[in-house]
């Protein structure tokens, strides 16, 4: 079992930066691939970024490549999403998710989810 809690959301101006954190409970955090998803009002939840259990492999949605960076610290049971050069279209509730084995970009393949943190990009 893994419990996840996101933090770090808020209001940010276009072009600004924000770092989201996701703290995980449980001793086996390092066995899980982790991912960030987001959901804007009236839209389906979509994949943003994922990272392997070791942190050695990452994968991004095309529209965030070069702007967002996913990382993890297994000693702290935490995964991060550094968001740079944010745009109004990045506005959404951001969720972290966990699954055993390798990461995927499919919402339905993740077993554990946090409650989400709101990110609003606006001037």
Tell me the layout of helices and strands:
Blueprint: E1 4-7, E2 10-12, E3 18-24, E4 32-39, E5 46-51, E6 58-60, E7 68-73, E8 78-83, E9 92-100, E10 112-113, E11 117-121
Parallel strand pairs: 2-11
Antiparallel strand pairs: 1-3, 3-8, 4-5, 4-9, 5-6, 7-8, 9-10, 9-11
Describe this structure in words.
This protein is an all-beta fold and 123 residues long. The protein contains no helices and eleven strands. Strands 2, 4, 5, 6, 9, 10 and 11 form a seven-stranded mixed β-sheet that branches. The radius of gyration is 13 Å and the shape is globular. The chain starts with a strand and ends with a strand.
The 3D shape can be described as: globular
**What percent of the residues sit in helical stretches (DSSP H or I)?**
under 10%
Unreliable stretches (pLDDT < 50, length at least 5) are none
Structural class: mainly beta
Q: Termini distance?
A: 40 Å
Gyration radius (Cα, Å) is: 13 Å
Main sheet characteristics: 7 strands, mixed
Strand segment count: 11
Total helices: the number is 0
Strand content: over 45%
Helix-strand string: EEEEEEEEEEE
What would the average pLDDT be, to the nearest integer?
A: 96
């Amino acid at each position: 079992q893994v419990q996840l809690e996101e933090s770090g959301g808020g209001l940010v101006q276009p072009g600004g930066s924000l770092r989201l954190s996701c703290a995980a409970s449980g001793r086996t955090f390092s066995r899980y691939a982790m991912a960030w998803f987001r959901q804007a009002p009236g839209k389906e939840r979509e994949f943003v970024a994922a990272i392997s259990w070791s942190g050695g492999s990452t994968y991004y949605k095309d529209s965030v490549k070069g702007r967002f960076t996913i990382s993890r610290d297994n000693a702290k049971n935490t995964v991060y999403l550094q968001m740079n050069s944010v745009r109004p279209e990045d506005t959404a509730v951001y969720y972290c998710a966990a699954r055993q084995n390798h990461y995927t970009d499919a919402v339905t393949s993740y077993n554990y989810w946090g409650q989400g943190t709101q990110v609003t990009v606006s001037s």
